[in-house]
From TrEMBL, chain A:
The keyword Transcription is annotated on this UniProt entry: no
GO MF term list: glutathione transferase activity
A cellular component term, taken from the record's GO annotations: cytoplasm
Keyword Translocase in record: no
Keywords, ordered alphabetically: Transferase
Catalysed transformations (reactions): RX + glutathione = an S-substituted glutathione + a halide anion + H(+)
Superkingdom field: Eukaryota
Family, as annotated: Belongs to the GST superfamily.
The EC number(s) this enzyme carries: 2.5.1.18
Example GO biological process: glutathione metabolic process
Recorded coiled-coil stretches: none
Protein name stated in the entry: glutathione transferase
Automatic annotation (TrEMBL), chain B:
Subcellular location: Cytoplasm, Cytosol
Organism (species): Sphenostylis stenocarpa
PROSITE patterns xref list: GST_CTER (PS50405), GST_NTER (PS50404)
Record carries keyword Oxidoreductase: no
Top EC class, one word: transferase
KW Transcription regulation (keyword) present: no
Family matches, as InterPro entries: Glutathione-S-Trfase_C-like, Glutathione-S-Trfase_C_sf, Glutathione_S-Trfase, Glutathione_S-Trfase_N, GST_C_Tau, Omega/Tau-like, Thioredoxin-like_sf
BP terms from Gene Ontology: glutathione metabolic process; toxin catabolic process
Domain GST N-terminal residues, every copy: 4-83
Main localization category: cytoplasm
Family: Belongs to the GST superfamily. Tau family.
Protein's name according to its UniProt entry: Glutathione S-transferase
């Protein structure tokens, strides 16, 4: 089968870009990967995503689609094999709800927990743990959020499995206590050992270096108030 | 007994709840509205949306659906025989979702930030963002809809609902600050669209009156400032 002219523009460590790659690989869609240096944005990116100037971008038949959750829906609607979203409208609504809600709440809390210290960090860890409790309830008794197979919500939340542990190490914090979150811990193992997922993870040692740098350059009220 | 077993936990002041009503009206579906005052939040709301504790929530039989854009997509999928709210092809659907997400991220925050800001200096960046939003949407409407009345074409679609639901709040910000946002010279297509949208049978009568909403906005401003 020839190339369908599918390109993915992303940044190697971006969890948003990984979602797009996972979705395409699960559906067996070949694509060209184009690495973008997000700290030195190319004219290509600015042309493909003039509004947000962000990765990832999916380019299909020369047309750009942006925003990772929107890209996932596009992929699922365009290539019908290996459906990612559930079939029933209510299940679809729930999957979309959890994807965006966790992104909104845990994405911010987790980053702050990694990048800050003191009270600010403590509050963020607490917030992140609270969201984990809700996720634990959702995954209990299931191998994947999608049931027997990796689905939309697994892809949407997959960053928890490979990124949160890195953030924990960089921030010297714990959010994912296995004794508190046995179902999530089990899901993480299932997810990370899936062949498609395994093959696309960014190297952990590189991730640690990257996020240590991000943390060191992160502005915070605490840091700004400390004068050398 | 709820019509169609459909209940909307909403509020007359909420642009997000308005989206759900417009969508249901477009589908010609009957439903019951439960007005939430949010002060305090009802047990039903807290039980139906424990994660965010926000309106709107659509209760359909024993199911609760939250987040306005997600609810509208749900409505479009369940009542699939009625005219579609989202476009048919995947690329256009992605485009529609993009502009609705953009509206939530940039338009809603601009309006809210102008409301909360104390002086002109503080309002300036938010007005700049608001102007950028209007410029972009003017372009989307005038170029994308091929001269048709709505973002969605001949009928109200996802972007119309997403952006149109904020019309009353936009008027409130305009009046409270004595400064126009929507401008006939800069945004001729949007100005025309706003009239057509408000007059559409699915929307008519649902947009809150500006005076009533201004009073509400003044109280909200104080509440937000106190936080």
């Amino acid at each position: 089968m020839g190339s369908e002219d599918v390109k993915v523009v992303s940044f190697w460590v971006s969890p948003f870009g990984k979602r797009v790659e996972w979705a395409l690989k699960l559906k067996g869609i070949e694509y060209e990967y184009i690495e973008e240096d997000i700290f030195n944005k190319s004219n290509l990116l600015l042309r493909l995503n003039p509004v947000h100037k962000k990765v990832p971008v999916l380019v299909h038949h020369h047309k750009p689609i942006v925003e990772s959750f929107i890209i996932l829906e596009y992929i699922d609607e365009t290539w019908k094999q290996y459906p990612l979203l559930p079939h029933h409208p209510h299940q679809r609504a729930l999957a979309r709800f959890w994807a965006t809600s966790v992104e909104q709440k845990l994405g911010k809390a987790g980053w702050v927990a990694m990048a800050t210290s003191g009270d600010e960090q403590e509050r963020a860890v607490k917030e992140a743990t609270e969201i984990m409790e809700k996720i634990e309830d959702e995954i209990k008794g299931k191998e994947f959020f999608g049931g027997k197979n990796v689905g939309y919500l697994d892809i949407a939340l997959g960053w928890i499995a490979h990124l949160i542990p890195v953030w924990e190490e960089v921030g010297s914090i714990q959010i994912l206590d296995p004794s508190k979150f046995p179902a999530i811990t089990s899901w993480m193992t299932n997810f990370l050992s899936h062949p498609v997922i395994q093959d696309t993870l960014p190297p952990r040692d590189k991730m640690l270096v990257y996020y240590h740098n991000r943390k060191n350059n992160w502005p915070s009220a605490f840091r700004n108030s400390v004068k050398d | 007994m709820a019509k169609n077993d459909l209940k909307l936990l909403g509020g007359w002041f909420s642009p997000f709840a308005l989206r759900v009503q417009i969508a249901l009206n477009l589908k010609g579906v009957e439903y019951e509205v439960i007005e939430e005052t949010l002060n305090p939040k009802s047990d039903l709301l807290l039980k139906s949306n424990p994660v965010h504790k926000k309106i709107p929530v659509l209760l359909h039989a024993d199911k609760a659906i939250c987040e306005s854009a997600i609810i509208v997509e749900y409505i479009d999928e369940v009542w699939s025989n009625a005219p579609s709210i989202l476009p048919q092809n995947a690329y256009d659907r992605a485009n529609a979702r993009f502009w609705v997400a953009y509206t939530d991220e940039k338009w809603f925050t601009s309006l809210k930030s102008v409301l909360v800001a104390d002086d002109d200096e503080a309002k300036k960046p938010h007005y700049e963002q608001a102007e950028e939003v209007l410029e972009r949407l003017e372009e989307v409407l005038s170029k994308g809809s091929e001269g048709k009345a709505f973002f969605g074409g001949d009928r109200i679609g996802f972007i119309d609902i997403g952006f149109g639901s904020f019309l009353s709040w936009m008027r409130v910000i305009e009046e409270m600050n004595g400064r126009k946002l929507l401008d006939e010279t800069k945004h001729p297509s949007l100005v025309k669209w706003a009239e057509t949208f408000a007059a559409d049978p699915a929307v008519n009568g649902l947009l809150p009156e500006t005076d009533k909403l201004i009073e509400f906005a003044k109280v909200l401003k104080l509440k937000l400032a106190a936080k």
